[in-house]
Amino acid sequence: MNESWHAAGPAVAARAVTKTYGNGVRAVRGVDLTVPPGEIRAVVGENGAGKSTLMKMFYGLEQPSSGEILIGGRPRTLRGPAAAIALGVGMVHQNLMLVPSFTVAQNVVLGVEPGRRGLVDARAAVEITARLAEEAGLAVDPKARIDEVSVGMRQRTEILKALHRRAKVLILDEPTAVLTPQETEDLFAAVRRLRDGGMTVLFISHKLREVREISDQVSVMRAGSLVGTVPTADATERSLAAMMVGRDLSLDVDRAAARRGEVTLRVRKLGYEAPTGQSLHRLSFDVAAGEIVGVAGIEGNGQSELAEILAGLRSPTAGTIHVGGTDTAGLGVAGHRRAGVGYVPEDRLHNGAALDESIADNLVVDRHDRPPLARRGVLHPKAVRAHAERLIDQYAIRTPDPSVPMRALSGGNVQKVIVARELSAGPRLLIASQVTRGVDIGAMRFMYERLVAARDDGAAVLLISADLTELLALSDRLLVLKEGLLVGRFDDTAGLTEKHVGLYMLGVEHHDDKHLTAGLAAGEEPTP
Amino acid sequence: MSSVFDVVFSSAFLAAALRVATPYLLAAFGGLVAERAGISNIALEGQMLAAACTGALVAGYSGSVALGALSGIAVATLLGLLLAALRLELGADAIIAGIGLNLLASGATAYAVYTLLDDKGGTSGLDSGTLPTVPLPGIESIPVLGDVLSGQNLITWLAFLTAPFVAWLFYRTTFGFHLRAVGEMPDAAASVGIPVRRVQYAGLALSGALAGLAGVFLSMGYVSFFVRDMTAGRGFIALAAVFLGGLRPWGVFLAALGFGAAEALAVQLGTLDVPPQLVSTIPYAMTLVALALYAWRRKRRGVGEATPASL
Amino acid sequence: MTSTLIETEDRREYRATRRRGLAVDLSMTLATVLAALAVGFLVILATGKDPVAAYEALLTGPLERSFRVGRWLEDATTLTLLGLSVAIPFRARQISLGAESQLYAGALAAATVAIFLPLPPVAAVVVPLVAAAAAGAGMGFVPGSMKARLGANEIVATLMLNAIVVRVYDYLVNGPLKEPGSSAVHSERVQQDSVLTPLTDWFGIPLGRSNVGLFLMLLTAVALWLLITRTPLGYRIRMTGANSDFAEYGGIRVPRAIEWSFVIGGAVAGLAGAHLVQGVYGRLEPGMAGSLAFEGIVVALLARNNPLVVVIAGLFYSYLRAGGDIMEQQTDVGTEIVVVIQAVIVLLVTAQALPDLLKRRIARKQAAQKQVGAR
């Protein structure tokens, strides 16, 4: 069906496309976008700007509520991915769409298997994969099982999948989020090679540096609309950022200088051997009462593991952790909470809330078994309700009633419930992981104010974020993680630039051990 | 003790083991196909029962054993499709819908038999006949082997061929390839344009058909009548064999064969001084222990190997 | 600021929405039952019988004579206890199918104590009950801890335990516990002091084998409702069922909550066994639970695992069972049709998308009407 491409027309285009979901949310509003063949087009925007929804419409996973999708210069109705694939569109999803127990080769050919009369020719699948990998410069082991290869190889497998389907348009949805810098470089080289061979590439990202490096033109989306398209050569990170957020990028958060108190969190030579994911090696740092310490790093460099260890959800395999004098390394979650640890988890839908239960019940998970909510083994629903009413009021949670199930709330409001629960416990140490991910600007500002207020009340705050701007705006001190190692430590964040921190995140620069451990009391060292 | 060995190595026992294992094998493969397609088929029991009843009734009234068997299989296939529809179209929980279908089969078969034959117990008043056995000229006369292999029912042979068939289907054919992808990672399958629901419907139809074949064997294999609730929990045991076999064709084959052999042994030992009820608990106790060991090992390894989400 | 529909409602509006939702749920449940009865009606009609006479017997029969009422209540007591026993693990999202093994374990424990252990009057009733609950709880603990600590599939574990316990029970009733010198297969009678007082003695009218176990059942239901809604353990069980990752993150020891849900459910199923031994049969009978254990699951489902609603569902379900027997005696329609009706109820209840589908269709129709009105 690729023959039906109109030679002179755009490779992909949207004309006045609008997408309104069943629940009334309008994700995409009247977007006009034209991408000529053989171009790498970056589409940037904040979380929730509508980038992914627009791409899903190009790939047939969503259908526009109004407007037209054009593939190969002609208007198309894409009823599903099969239709888009047939027209030469391939997509690499943010969460990779691979079958874990299948080999790389099997995943590449899945859906378009070589062989005759309903049989799969396994050898041909391996040969095809090897040949495609060779041509595109994407190194993979065709016979390895997907669940046993690196994330980078999984992503290359995804691209090979699209190539095997003779894609002329390749959509990459936030492809670098999970990659190491080296893998990112390799990916970019491969993408350029594909472009030179005539491929049209749509590159979705919110990392402006990468966008400037890889794309020919940049289209910026904001709140569902297309704000504009500029040649990459004419764009600066600052000008793009201004278009993306529609406000001055500097997130001025009102905060006085930190008044550091006693050391609250003391981590020494922390090690973690991960069965899956990132291991941690010999981490040593302090967080004092009354300061916010940011943790920067490209996602997947050990931040999630560190947060879960400090919250008690995983056990470290080496080293010591003390929270306010309590040795927490061997304690469970409840023990950590007793020691005064609060945790805003990075994925609120996964473990931050029970969506089908009420707001009131969600607010008491850590304190349901003690006064004033429970006395002598009896839980008092009235007390639970009153507790919820109070927090709903204090944290401006928008709901008509505490009995509303969490599922009915918007993302920002769910996050407010979680933050309300964790802060109202009066934590000595608060671990805040991706607090503003996927929330709107109003809620974002609210979170910032609360974090600073908690700090000023004497909490030690460990702030983990993928958003460097946010980290620089909020942190009193900053640590940088790379591949499970501490590689940077900035005791003064004033005047620190994203660019400078980026060098540490990417491994171009690193601090030496002496600088990293300067001033850390040695008293809690484990005896060897 | 020697008497136990005498029993185990007698040709009568071995022949009985193959016979008794037949419904377990077929139903277990039915369960396996559904499980790998991502929908647990706990309705195996009901599908067997419905097929057994339909087979005996149709054969009895039409006089055609083949027609009876085919109708039985068809009814079980429809029940498989119904389970898929309840799950996929109406968002039902597969386990609960399966329990509902089992109830439906139990009530409907008993009601049908009572209404048609005015008999609470079964269709023994109806002459429905049995499916043919397969004599093996030549092998027949070999001492032990002949007694064991020759004269087994046609369906027993089919049951033993099911293992290589399912293995071939899973690992060699496009359909099996898609089925496994759909069961393990439906989003991934959908994103490459595989019609996920259609594959699941096909899988559940095949699952039902295999359970149906097992049911038909019960009422038309060695006996020629249907007895109320004659499946007696075999569907559930088959399901246990699916898990015990690690969701792999040959593992399931061994597990189901083991259940059959143990049951045959219990019957044969009934002639000795051992309480048959206690002997017959052995395979279930073994499954329980195996289940615990398997889970323990998986837990120690830290990560579960890729298995369908329904586990 | 983006927000959802509910967030923008005010409190009064929200309460109205909730009342409407409740009304829809209630009418859906009623509609489900009516639809299932209609299916049964059509099946009877299709098989050439008189559905009106059959339904008259089915629906009014159980109330016509006092001993029939007794038969109904006695059946409802066992069934409701079994429904309660699975409702608790279901709340922790554990699909326990083990009520059968727990019931037989409870029956064996109750019978052993009540037959062989001489006890003073009140203790003679209470001790066997406690023994039964303990035995059932132990039988629940096995699959519970296998699931909680090892992650072993609870469906398979409970089914295997059922298979084992049913056979052991069969062996014991046929062997060691068989009444000496009797030709019938059953155990000796329990001591007179251990018998749960028949309701006939209380009310002075013949109420069959129904007994004070009925009140025990009602007490159990209320206790379980309080447990789920008013205790920290109940909260932990609910949160574990709602999202176990969330529960763990909140400091709840999820394996413990899962284990407790199995143990509590097992104890209740054990009581059901004691009710059969001390109240209904007065001894161990072979296969005395029949298919009740599986039907308990249906009752729990129908009641959406709310202990108080389980009582209503159990009473309703048993009413159909009792009515079915009367229907068979009085007409030529087999009692099995009741099982078909029950199956249809289960299938309709589990078809969760069905009410949403209907709601959406209603909403669409209303929207269409509005548009027409606007023109």
From TrEMBL, chain A:
In terms of SMART domains, this protein maps to:
AAA
Keyword list, A-Z: ATP-binding, Nucleotide-binding
Q: Which GO terms describe its molecular function?
A: ATP binding; ATP hydrolysis activity
The cross-references to InterPro entries, in alphabetical order and at most eight, read: AAA+_ATPase (IPR003593), ABC_carbohydrate_import_ATPase (IPR050107), ABC_transporter-like_ATP-bd (IPR003439), P-loop_NTPase (IPR027417)
Keyword ATP-binding set for record: yes
Q: CDD domains of this UniProt entry?
A: ABC_Carb_Monos_I (cd03216), ABC_Carb_Monos_II (cd03215)
Q: Which residues form the ABC transporter domain?
A: 12-248, 265-508
The record, for Pfam families, names:
ABC_tran
Protein name per the record: ABC transporter ATP-binding protein
**What organism is this sequence from?**
Streptomyces cyaneochromogenes
UniProtKB/TrEMBL annotation, chain B:
Traced from the root, the source organism's taxonomic lineage reads:
Bacteria, Bacillati, Actinomycetota, Actinomycetes, Kitasatosporales
Instruction: Show the stretches that span the lipid bilayer.
Output: 65-88, 94-117, 154-171, 201-223, 235-258, 278-296
What is the official name of this protein in its record?
Answer: ABC transporter permease
How does the record classify its membrane topology? Multi-pass membrane protein
This chain's source organism reads Streptomyces cyaneochromogenes
Keyword Membrane in annotation: yes
Q: Which CDD domains match?
A: TM_PBP1_transp_TpRbsC_like (cd06580)
The protein's location, in the record's own words, is: Cell membrane
Q: GO molecular function of the protein, one example? A: transmembrane transporter activity
Q: Which InterPro entries match?
A: ABC_transp_permease
> Cellular component per GO?
plasma membrane
Q: Which UniProt keywords apply?
A: Cell membrane, Membrane, Transmembrane, Transmembrane helix
PANTHER family in the record: ABC TRANSPORTER PERMEASE PROTEIN, SUGAR ABC TRANSPORTER INTEGRAL MEMBRANE PROTEIN-RELATED
TrEMBL record, chain C:
Subcellular location, principal? membrane
Q: Does Nuclease count among this protein's keywords?
A: no
Q: Which InterPro entries match?
A: ABC_transp_permease (IPR001851)
GO CC annotation: plasma membrane
Q: What's one GO MF term for it? A: transmembrane transporter activity
Ordered alphabetically, the record's keywords are: Cell membrane, Membrane, Transmembrane, Transmembrane helix
**Where is it localised?**
Cell membrane
Topology within the bilayer: Multi-pass membrane protein
Entry keyword annotation includes Transport? no
Which named protein is this?
Answer: ABC transporter permease
Lineage runs: Bacteria, Bacillati, Actinomycetota, Actinomycetes, Kitasatosporales
